[in-house]
C-alpha cells in the first residue's frame, strides 16, 4: 500500500537548481516575504500535514465514502477534523491578499501545497480546492462588498465554495444551461434549476457553502452569450455577517462513482434560491473561465499526483516482492528469488511513472511562476500577455498530464500483478481516483480542441511561436554555457530543438488543412495535444538534465541524486519521447478516415 | 448503459467471407456434424442466452458481488438459475468428445459461445470458463478412471472446476509453490497448504467442485521441476459416484477486488485434503500448461469482450447525447446541438474500439481453427507443429488483445465524459472488469517474455518465420487474385508486407543483442509484444479488407456493411498501425537506460 512521503528533495531540486524560485519570488510585489526559511518551513509543514493527517484517511475515505441523509451529506470519518486542522494552519489563505484575510504568499507556493495534499488524498483535497476556485472568482469579479461578505469567510476557511456549471443535459456545451435567475427587484435574484456533478455541493466540513452558479436571466440571448454568474449561499447571511435562514438550494442526492468516493458529488436543486450577480449580466461564462482555468491547472496537478502516488506505491513492492531470477544471472543468491526490481520490464514501468511524475512537477511549477506573475502584473497588457502564455500551457498541463497520470496509475497496478487488483493494497484506488481526471474540467478531447483550435490556430500560432521561441532560445543558451558538460547534453538539446521545429511545422500543416476543412482540427487534435505534451515535457527534462549535469560538474556531494536525474532524463528521451513520432504521423492522417463513415454504418446488429 | 447484442452479423462475416469456417469444419474428424444449419442454430441460441439471460445480470452482479459466510460463498441473485439454464442447454459440453458426455463439436464454435457469454457478463463466464480449463486438463492428462469419475460430471455441468496455482508468496514464479502432497500409501495423497486468487474456488452453483492443484511431493526437487498436479474435490466421491464426506479443503475468505465482483476469488485452505495425482510425478507444471494455454486464449477473449462491450455502450450514447455543433457546420439543425458522433475525435474513439473488437475477433477465431486442428491432429508431429503455431500466437492474443481491451474500456468511458464515471451507466464497470485481464494468467510482461524469449529467440525464430512466411504468402496471393480490386488493396498489402519483414528484422537485431546481454530481452519485450500485436492485427484487417472489397466487387446487396468494413480497415491502417513505429524504435533503445540505475537511487525521500 502506498505510504505517501512528500518528495521534498525533488521539490527542492526544482526550486533551487532548475527554476530558481527564490529569484522569481523576489521579482514579485508580494514575493519578499517568501524568504528561503519561510518557504522551507511552509513546505515541511505542508509535507507533515499531507503525510500524517491526509494520507491515513485516503483508503478509509474510499471504503467509507460519503453518505446522504435527508439532504445532508456526511463525509468520511476524520475528514472534518483534518479540515479544521488545515484551516487552523492557515493553509486555505496562503496565496490570497492580506486585505481579504490571506497571507499574500505567491500562488506557486500554494501549488506545492496542493500537490502534497492532493497526492496524499485527492478526495479530501477537492473540498479546499473547489473553495480556492470560488475564492479566485470572487477576488477577480466580485464587488468589494461581495468580497467582504463572501471571500473573507472562505479565506478563513469558515465557509467553503463550489462551482455549479453542469446540468443534466449539458456539461461541455454550457450554452444549453437552463437554470433561470429572475430579478427580485432588489439586488437579489431568484434561481431555479438543477445542477449535477457538483463537487463539495453539500458536506459537513463548514457551516456555510458559497455556490458560484451559472444561470440565465429572463430574455437573455440564447447560447453562451446569455449566461450570467451568481453567488448562491447555502445559508443566507444577515447584515451583521451571522448566518440567516436556509436558502432554497439543497442536495437531492449523491452520485455513485468509480472513484474519489470521499468527495461528495452532488445533485443540487435550486428552488427560488436567493442569489447575487457577479460581474456583468450575460458575461458569466467569461467570469467563470477564471474558475475553470484554476480548476484545469488543479486537475493537471491530479495527473502529477496519480503518477507520484502510483510510483511511491509500486517502488517498495518492486523492491520487496521476490519473483523469478534475473535473465542476466542471479542477483540475490540468498533469496529464494530475485526481487521484481531486477527485471528490466519492471524498471521500465517504474521509470515511466517516475519520469511522468518528475516531468509533470517541473511543468506545473514553472506554469505556477507564470500564474504568480500574471496575478501581480502591473499593467493590463502585461497581464494579458502572461494570460496568453499560461493559456497555451493550460490544456497541455490538464490534458497531457492527466493522461500520463492515468497511464501511471495503471502501471502502478501492473507492477503488483494480481495483487494490484485487490483493494487492500490501495493501488487500484489510484486508477479509480485518477480516472476522473481526463473527464472533468473538460475532457482530453475538449482540452485538445482548446489547444489546437483556440490557442494555436485562432491566434495564428502567436502563443505557440512564443513558447517554441523560448524553447529554442534555451537550447541555444545551453550550447554556450560553460557550466554544463556540453557533450553530455548535446544529443538531447538536438532532440528538443528538432521536435520543437517539427511542432511548429505540424501546426502550419494543420492550419492549412483546417482552412479548407474545419474537421481537420478535431481529427488531429488529441494527437496534437499528446505530441505537444511529450515535447514540452522533453523541454523540462532537458532543463532538469542540464541542471543535474551542472551539479555533477561542480562536484556536488549528492552525486547519486543527480545521477539518478540524468538517468531518468535519458530514460525519458529514449523510451517515452519516441511516442511523439506516432502522434506526428497520426495527426496527419486524412480526416476522412474519421468523418466519412455514415452514422448508421457504425453497427449492424 | 451497454445493452449487449451479440454481433452475429460480424461473426457471420468472419465465418463466411474471411475464415471459411465451413470448409475448415469439414477437414476435422469431428467436423461433419457442424453443418451450416447447426452452427447457425448454435450461434443464435448462444446469442439469445447471452443477451437475455446473462447481460441483465452483469450490473446487478457487480453491485451485489459474492458473499462469504462460514466458508460458503453465495453468488449474486440470478447467477445460479442462469448456470442451470446454461447446463440444461448443453453448453458446457459443446466441444468435448461424446465418449465423455460431450457433443463433439469443434472447439472454435465454443470460442464463439465463450465470447458472447463473456461479453455479456464476464464475471459469470468465469465459472464455466474455469470448469472448461479443468475439463481440458483432465481430458489430456487424466487416467480413464479419472475421466469417468471427474470429467463426465463436469461435462454435464453437475460439477465445476478450478485451477489452484497461486500461493501468497508466488504467482508468476510457480517454482516457489509450497503446498505439500503426502502419499497416503494408497492411490490418494494428503494435501496441505494455502492457495490464493482461486476463481470459482467456492460458490453455490454446483454440488461439487473439482480443484486442480499444484503441490509438491515429499523430497521433490526444488523449483519448477518438483511440482505435481492433483485432483482435490470439495466433496469426496463414493465408488457409486454419489457424494461422500466433505474433503479437507475450504474457502477461508473472498478477496475484495476492483472488478469482476460477481466472480468469487477465493483463499483456499487445504488441510490434509484428499487428492489424486494427475499425470507423472513432478511433471505438474507441464500438465498445467494445458490449463494455462486454454486460460490465456480465454483471457484474450476478455480483451475482445471489453472492446466490444465498451463500443456497444458508447455508440448509442454518442448518437443520442447532444453537445456542441460540428466544427464543419451544423449537422442537426432541429436539435439544440449536434450529437456527439458528428465530432471527429469522438469518432476516433469509437473507431478505435470497433477496430480492436473486430480485429481481435478475427485473430481469435482464426487461432481457434488452429486449436481445432491441434486437438484432432492424427500424428504427434502434426500436433506439435500446430501447438507451436498456436504457441506463437498465444502471448499475442493474451498480451496484446487485453491491452487493447483495456484501452477500449477507457475510451468507452471517455465518450461518456463525466457520465462515464457514474456507476449507473455501466461503463466504468467495463474498465474495472477489464483491468484484471492484463494481470491474471500471466501479466503483459510475462506474455512478452514468453513471446520474445521463449517463442521467438529460443526457437531461433522458427515459429516467427513460419507465421511471417504465411503472412507474406497471403500478401502475394492477394496481388494475383482477380476477384479483388487490386488498386484498392495494394497500399495495405504493401504496409503489411513491409511491417512483417521489419518484424523479422527486429527479431534478428534483438537476437544478436540478447546473445551478448540477456537483459536485452526484458528491455525490449513489451514493445516487441505490442509491435507484434499491431502487425498481426494488421494482417487480419487486411484479410477483412480484401474479403469486403471482394464482396463489393461482386455487387453484394449489403453494400453498407462491406463499406463499413473497408472504412474500419482503413482507419486501422492510418490511425492505429502507426503506433508500431514507436514500439519499433523503443524496443531498440539501449537496455542500459533501464538497467543501470542503482536500486537505491530510484527514490530520495
Note down, in words, how this protein is organized.
Two copies of one chain form a homodimer. In chain A, strands 3, 4, 5, 6, 7, 10 and 11 form a seven-stranded mixed β-sheet that branches. Chain A has a two-stranded antiparallel ribbon with strand order 1-2. Chain A is an alpha+beta fold. Chain A has 19 helices and eleven strands. The first copy, chain A, is globular and about 80 Å long. Chain A has a domain at 457-592. Chain A has helices at 8-18, 21-27, 36-54, 58-64, 79-88, 107-120, 122-141, 144-155, 284-320, 344-375, 380-416, 427-434, 444-458, 462-479, 486-516, 519-553, 559-576, 579-587, 592-595, and strands at residues 67-69, 72-74, 159-164, 180-183, 188-199, 208-215, 228-233, 235-237, 243-246, 249-254, 265-278. Chains A and B meet through helix 1, helix 9, helix 10, helix 11 and helix 12 of A and helix 1, helix 9, helix 10, helix 11 and helix 12 of B.
Structural class of chain A: alpha+beta
Point out poorly predicted stretches of chain A.
none
Number of DSSP strand runs of chain A: 11
What string, H for helix and E for strand, traces the elements of chain A in order? HHHHEEHHHHEEEEEEEEEHHHHHHHHHHH
The helix tally of chain A amounts to 19
**Biggest protein-protein interface?**
A-B, 109 and 109 residues
The N- to C-terminal Cα distance of chain A equals 44 Å
Q: Can you give the mean pLDDT of chain A?
A: 96
Q: Largest beta sheet of chain A, briefly?
A: 7 strands, mixed
Question: What is the helical fraction of chain A, as a range of percent?
Answer: 55-70%
The global form of chain A is globular
Domain Acyl-CoA dehydrogenase/oxidase N-terminal (chains A, B): 45-158
Domain Acetyl-CoA dehydrogenase-like C-terminal (chains A, B): 488-597
Keywords (chains A, B): FAD, Flavoprotein, Membrane, Oxidoreductase, Transmembrane, Transmembrane helix
Family (chains A, B): Belongs to the acyl-CoA dehydrogenase family.
Amino acid at each position: 500500500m502506498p505510504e505517501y512521503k512528500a518528495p521534498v528533495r525533488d521539490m527542492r531540486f526544482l526550486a533551487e537548481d532548475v527554476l530558481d524560485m527564490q529569484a522569481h519570488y523576489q521579482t514579485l510585489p508580494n514575493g519578499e516575504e517568501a524568504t528561503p526559511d519561510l518557504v522551507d518551513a511552509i513546505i515541511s509543514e505542508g509535507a507533515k500535514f499531507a503525510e500524517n493527517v491526509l494520507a491515513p484517511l485516503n483508503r478509509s475515505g474510499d471504503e467509507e465514502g460519503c453518505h446522504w441523509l435527508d439532504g445532508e451529506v456526511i463525509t468520511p470519518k476524520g475528514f472534518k477534523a483534518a479540515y479544521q486542522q488545515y484551516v487552523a494552519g492557515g493553509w486555505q489563505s496562503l496565496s490570497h491578499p492580506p486585505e481579504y484575510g490571506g497571507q499574500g504568499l505567491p500562488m506557486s507556493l500554494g501549488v506545492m501545497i496542493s500537490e502534497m495534499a492532493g497526492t496524499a488524498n485527492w478526495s479530501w483535497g477537492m473540498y479546499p480546492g473547489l473553495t480556492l476556485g470560488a475564492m479566485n472568482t470572487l477576488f477577480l469579479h466580485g464587488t468589494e462588498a461581495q468580497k467582504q461578505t463572501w471571500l473573507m469567510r472562505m479565506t478563513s476557511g469558515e465557509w467553503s465554495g463550489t462551482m455549479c456549471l453542469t446540468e443534466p443535459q449539458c456539461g461541455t456545451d454550457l450554452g444549453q444551461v437552463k437554470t433561470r435567475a429572475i430579478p427580485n427587484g432588489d439586488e437579489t435574484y431568484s434561481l431555479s434549476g438543477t445542477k449535477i456533478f457538483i463537487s463539495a455541493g453539500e458536506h459537513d466540513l463548514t457551516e456555510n457553502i458559497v455556490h458560484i452558479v451559472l444561470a440565465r436571466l429572463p430574455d437573455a440571448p440564447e447560447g453562451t452569450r446569455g449566461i450570467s454568474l451568481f453567488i448562491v449561499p447555502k445559508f443566507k447571511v444577515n447584515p451583521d455577517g451571522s448566518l440567516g435562514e436556509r436558502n432554497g438550494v439543497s442536495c437531492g442526492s449523491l452520485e455513485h462513482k468509480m472513484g474519489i468516493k470521499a468527495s461528495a458529488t452532488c445533485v443540487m436543486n435550486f428552488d427560488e434560491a436567493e442569489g447575487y450577480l457577479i460581474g456583468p449580466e450575460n458575461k458569466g461564462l467569461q467570469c467563470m473561465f477564471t474558475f475553470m482555468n484554476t480548476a484545469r491547472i488543479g486537475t493537471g496537478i491530479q495527473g502529477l499526483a496519480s503518477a507520484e502516488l502510483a510510483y511511491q506505491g509500486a517502488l517498495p513492492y518492486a523492491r520487496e516482492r521476490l519473483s523469478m531470477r534475473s535473465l542476466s544471472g542471479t542477483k540475490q543468491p540468498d533469496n529464494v528469488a530475485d526481487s521484481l526490481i531486477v527485471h528490466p520490464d519492471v524498471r521500465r514501468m517504474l521509470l515511466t511513472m517516475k519520469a511522468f511524475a518528475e516531468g509533470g512537477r517541473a511543468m506545473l511549477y514553472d506554469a505556477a511562476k507564470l500564474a504568480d506573475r500574471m496575478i501581480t502584473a502591473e499593467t493590463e497588457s502585461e497581464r494579458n500577455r502572461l494570460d496568453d502564455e499560461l493559456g497555451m500551457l493550460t490544456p497541455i498541463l490538464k490534458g497531457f498530464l492527466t493522461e500520463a497520470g492515468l497511464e501511471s496509475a495503471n502501471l502502478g497496478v501492473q507492477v503488483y500483478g494480481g495483487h494490484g487488483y485487490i483493494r487492500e493494497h490501495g493501488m487500484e484506488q489510484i486508477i479509480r481516483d485518477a480516472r476522473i481526471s481526463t473527464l472533468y474540467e473538460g475532457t482530453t478531447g475538449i482540452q485538445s480542441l482548446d489547444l489546437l483550435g483556440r490557442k494555436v490556430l485562432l491566434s495564428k500560432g502567436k502563443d505557440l511561436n512564443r513558447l517554441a521561441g523560448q524553447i529554442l532560445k534555451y537550447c541555444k543558451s545551453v550550447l554556450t554555457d560553460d557550466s554544463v558538460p556540453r557533450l553530455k547534453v548535446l544529443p538531447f538539446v538536438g532532440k528538443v530543438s528538432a521536435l520543437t521545429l517539427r511542432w511548429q511545422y505540424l501546426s502550419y500543416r494543420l492550419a492549412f488543412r483546417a482552412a479548407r476543412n474545419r474537421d481537420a482540427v478535431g481529427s488531429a487534435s488529441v494527437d496534437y495535444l499528446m505530441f505537444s505534451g511529450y515535447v514540452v515535457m522533453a523541454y523540462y527534462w532537458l532543463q532538469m538534465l542540464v541542471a543535474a549535469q551542472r551539479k555533477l560538474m561542480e562536484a556536488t556531494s549528492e552525486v547519486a541524486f543527480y545521477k539518478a536525474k540524468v538517468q531518468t532524463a535519458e530514460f525519458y528521451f529514449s523510451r517515452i519521447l519516441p511516442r511523439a513520432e506516432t502522434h506526428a504521423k497520426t495527426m496527419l492522417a486524412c480526416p476522412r478516415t474519421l468523418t466519412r463513415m455514415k452514422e448508421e454504418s457504425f453497427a449492424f446488429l
